[in-house]
Amino acid sequence: MNALDQQTRLYLVVLEPEKDSTRLLHHVKQKAKMRNTSLQAIAIGDPSLSTFGLRNKEKFQRILNLTKQMGVTINFVRGTGAIKQIRRIIAQKEEEGYVIDSINFGVERQPSFFQRLGAPLFKRLASSLDKAYSIQLIYLDSYAINSQPFQYLLKINLKDIFYSLLAVLFATLGIELLHLFWPESMPITQAKNKAIIYMIACAYSASRYGLVCGILAAVTSFLVMGVLYIQPYGGLVLNDVNDALSLGLFLTAAAIIALFGSRDHQVKHMLRRRMKRLESLLQMHHITIKNQTPKEAIKALDENLSHILETEVVFFLPSPTNPRKLSTLFNDELKLSKQDEATLQTCWDECKTTGAGTVHHSDANWRFEPLIAAEHVIGVIGVFIKSPSVLTNSYSKLLSSIADQAALIIERIELGYIAEESRVQAEREKLRSMLLSSVSHDLKTPLASVIGSLSVFRSMGTKLPEQQQITLIDTALQEAQRLDSFITNILDMTRLESGQVELKEEWVDVARMTQDVAKRLKNRLASHKLMVVSNESFDILADDIMTAQVLQNLLDNAVKYTKAGTQIDVGWHVQDGKFELFVRDHGEGIREDKLDKIFDKYERIHKQDNQVAGTGLGLSIAKTVMLAQGGDITVHNHPQGGAIFTMKFNQWRAGTSSKEEAA
Amino acid sequence: MPLKNNTILAIDDTASIRTFLKISLEAYGAKFIEAASASEGLELFKESLPDLVVLDLGLPDRDGLDILPEIKQYNGEKKPRVIILSVRKEQQTKQRAKELGADAYLTKPFMVEDLMELIHDTLGESS
Description:
By secondary structure, chain A is of the alpha/beta class. Chain A is 50% helix and 16% strand.
């Protein structure tokens, strides 16, 4: 036997216009995917042609569009003489080198009137084919095959039985009372009126509680009457033919009334159920969708449906690692029997409804419906069927509708989520490129000053007055230092963000740290007046280097934002149990609405920021570092003008070093 | 003094760049005027009507490319030359500058000799 090339095996699916072939398509497509065979469709009639009858035109067009979207080639045949044309197509495919694996048709379990006229297409094709081809029939609708004949034998609960017996009891009481107070109306021997009273009780029971309760009431009434009111009293013996006939007729009449009465009950019950189910379909769409991840949506659907259907509902989705296997997202405690698992797998593999009430495992406890969205199958929904009596035709249809709706909802949310994700991603990319150009600008500008100044010095330095020579060298030096500051900030920020910085905890002499920073920034601070306004000695528990960096950034900012010649104050004190180190400038202060955003990364208050170090990171680093040390940094405008930045430390102690002179 | 009789306006928000430009251009004999923002630059331009404008793009109030047409299309006898100085080096920025009338484009950082050569070429073309 030659090994057949997988690719040349072909499934054919026949699409007839009067049928809703959606399930058929998904089923065959899934099968073809699983077995790696090709799939082509044969459409009976072309709806785009004017000769196509108006009936079913749109419906069929939709099916064909879906077919095209799924990437399935459509071979069109004319409605008349379809059999001959199908045979011709089969021959053509075989000539092209395909081996026809099966020809798939959709059938309806409950065909419409028109479909009942004449033999179905697949039968006619089968009989006309000379070779034996495998013809597969797939059910298009989901009717329950085992629907119970006695559908009105609904839930019987003990409460209902109790109440109907109570009705009989009341009837008896009523009769006894009448005996007591109005003896003429009810001679003991007469059964007629009593029977009618009991009849009322039976009718009530049947109408209120259903057939079984009605019959129960009838039988009970019969027995009670027989014992209490028919001679001989106290025992169920029927001597009189008349009495026997009365009782017999009573029971018959009561049974008939119970039957009719229970119909009323049944209809009421059915209507109520139907309303509830319609509501449940509508409710599904009211599940909030905004900003929900697909996972959250499925969880919400899961809970919602379990509540609506009053039974366990489980969503199965393909596991990301192995799309052939399904797994649940939330119901980890769910234990399916081996058989149920196999049923579930069949549903997924073949895209069919399986489980309770279907041809696959009709006696299973679960019913599995495939979740068919617009173009592909998302997963499977499992509904626990408590008892087979629940599986009426209308219930089956409901489950099928719920599955379809759920699939659409999930798909819609997934698509929305994907769109949102890509939008967020695009925004992130945009931000990143903006950041990059900002950083690049801030690094190149001081370098331009360094290179420019030094190149002037080199080309003409000796011919320039000494003052100008010094200016050039100074400029280059300052700008190089600024660049160093930039780079430090950027590296710090990067390290902080990637969590590589470990802040030390050591006792730091505040005054000494301040002096060190002031010295480092001597050049920068030359244009301003730095005043250290405190001189008490304190130690703070902090990271020396990083805290000094924060202080340096604050001083940098103060120089940046204020006019040359103005004063910058640095000081410290204890306030509200915390140690505070502040930097205050005498500039114009900061706009009120920017005060809380000022610590954000790359937030620039003025556009003049372009010219100075920090790349907008200085304050952001300050905030991060202070928070990481268990402290904080705040800003507010000083009442007498200028901005004041306050670093707050949790742990401090009186200083041990000798006091130093303020700068 | 190669730049004698030339007025050069430098519009750049970075003070240290204006510093070395001033020193070098004045050493070459030019009359040097500086501005730190686009609005200041336009004002000074209309007042002084320089022969050459050295224009930075990353200005605080308006983009340099924004005021470039205003400078080039200014109705006067003297048609000023404009040299763009910028850290931006993308081809499309350079193209755009050229379309808007820039006579030359120099990316930062640069050596003053390169700037001098460009100035020489640019001003040399004027009649």
